[in-house]
Amino acid sequence: MAEQMHERVEVGDAKSVRALVQMGSGQLAVKGGAGALMEGRFEFSNAAWRPEVTYDVSHDAPDAARDSSYGMGNLVVKQPERIKSTVTANANYVWDLALGNEVPVELAVRLASGDADLRLADTRAVLLEAAIGSGRVRADLARATELRHVAVKVGSGRVDLMFAGEYTYLSKVEVSVASGQTDLVLDGEYASLKELRINAASGRIGLRIAGACPALKTLALNTASGFVNLDIAGSLPADVAVGIRCVSGVSTVKLPAGLGASLRFSSVSGKLTTPGFRKENGRYVNAAYRAGAGALHLVVSTVSGELILQPIEL
Q1: Handedness of CA 199, 200, 201, 204 (dihedral sign)
Q2: What is the Cα–Cα distance from 112 to 171, expressed in whole angstroms?
Q3: Domain total in the chain
Q4: Is residue 140 part of a domain?
Q5: Is residue 174 within 8 Å of 197, Cβ to Cβ?
Q6: Residue pLDDT tens, the chain, 314 long
Q7: Is 130 found in the same domain as 155?
Q8: Are both 129 and 164 inside the same structural domain?
């Protein structure tokens, strides 16, 4: 019979908190709605697997100009070191954590294998860093509008990232998957988002931009072999460059027919399907393209892959 453990951590006088959640193998869930800094329910098959929870607040000011009452909280929830190699895939190891919304939180998640379900609405998360060896990450970041930076790295498995809301401070989103599937949806307003990158060695990349990203400077999708599906249904700044690099596979780009767009395509033995585009001065442009006017600039490089452009009537 599985054992259970409950933990509650109060924020104390911390002004902000760094939280590290480190697990070997198991099922992890993090959500908002706690009445404290953290409320946790843990379930484990062996008493030796009891998680270790520590919290302290530092009152050292980073520099003399800062208020002497400055306090950074440090929360650590981790699997005991001694059992790193003993938790098997069929073991019962479940962590269900809830975070409060009293102070800003920088959240780092480390999981060797398993599933991480992160639902950060009703938290004050300003940073999310997740590193998973193998498994699935599902991050529902709707209404987590204080986020500034999101970085997810997975060895093999699946990543689902969903944003919805008005994100005033979010400046960078980066996803890296060695092999597997990535699906990212941006819906809402992203006033400060400047950089969006997805890298994969193999597998599938899906990106849908349904919101407004007026500050975007870099949009890069890179894969060695696999499928890329880019759906641009929202608004991007004038003259933004969108880069896709792949060795082999099929890349499909959906974009509004009324959006001026140009394409530079380089390939050794690849295939290009561009309905509604014409070749002009060494590049391809659509009917809505006007020289000197703002446009979406696609730069696609492949060895033997295929690019398909699909104009969509909105």
Answers
A1: negative
A2: 28
A3: 2
A4: no
A5: yes
A6: 679 999 999 999 999 999 999 999 999 999 999 999 999 999 998 888 899 999 999 877 655 455 544 799 999 999 998 765 455 556 689 999 999 999 999 999 999 999 999 999 999 999 999 999 999 999 999 999 999 999 999 999 999 999 999 999 999 999 999 999 999 999 999 999 999 999 999 999 999 999 999 999 999 999 999 999 999 999 999 889 999 999 999 999 999 989 999 999 999 999 999 999 999 988 999 999 987 788 899 999 999 999 999 998 86
A7: no
A8: no
